[in-house]
Amino acid sequence: MKRFAVLISGRGSNLEAMLLARARGGLFADPVLVISNKSDAPGLAVAQRHGIPTEIVLWSDRESAEQRCLELLHRQSADFIVLAGFMKVLTGGFIDAYCHRILNIHPALLPSFPGVHAQRQALKYGARVTGCTTHFVDAGIDTGPIILQKAVPVLPDDTEETLSARILACEHELVVESVNLFAADCLMIDGDRRVRIDGEKFKRFRAECPARERTVPT
Known about the structure:
218 residues; Rossmann fold; seven-stranded mixed beta sheet; 22% strand; disordered C terminus
C-alpha cells in the first residue's frame, strides 16, 4: 500500500476528510506524516488525534525549508504528497524530486480562478458555476495536469463564506477519490498533459484491497 505525506498551512479540513475516510476503511493509502509551515496550524491537532506523526518546518528560508521537508519525506518513505491548504509555492527542485507525485486541491474549476481567494474571484467575476479541482503540481500556480473536477453552482445570494462551505464539502469527496486513484496506479498523464483514468483497473484494485477495520478517534 502506498504511503503519503500531507502538507498543510491551516485548519486541515481536507486532511481530516482523508483521515476519517481512512478510519472507515475507505482510503487505500497510508498517511505517514503531516508537515506544516505554521506551528499553530489547527490541522496539526487533527493529525495528532488520528495518530499521524507531525512536523513543523518554518519557511523563513525556502531552500532550507524544502530540503528539510525532503529529508522528512524520505525518512518516512513517502511515495507521494498531498497539498491540503498548503499556502507556499514549491520550487522546481522540490517538484522534480516528486515529479507527478504531488497532488493539490483547489477551490475552483481550473484553469479558471487560480491562486488565492478563488471563491472571491468567482463571485466578483459573476460566474454562475464554479467548483473544485484536484491536479498534479508543476512549476506554475495551479497549472498542473487536472485529475478530477466537481462543479458547484453559484447561487444568487451567495457570499464568499457560503460558497466556500459548499465547495469545501465537494473538496472532501474529491481529495479522497484522487488519493485512491493515485494509490491504485490508475492515473496516467499523456504527452498532451491530459490525465487518463483507468476505471477498470481501479475496480479491480478496490475489490482486491483488504478491508481494514478502523476506529474513528474521539
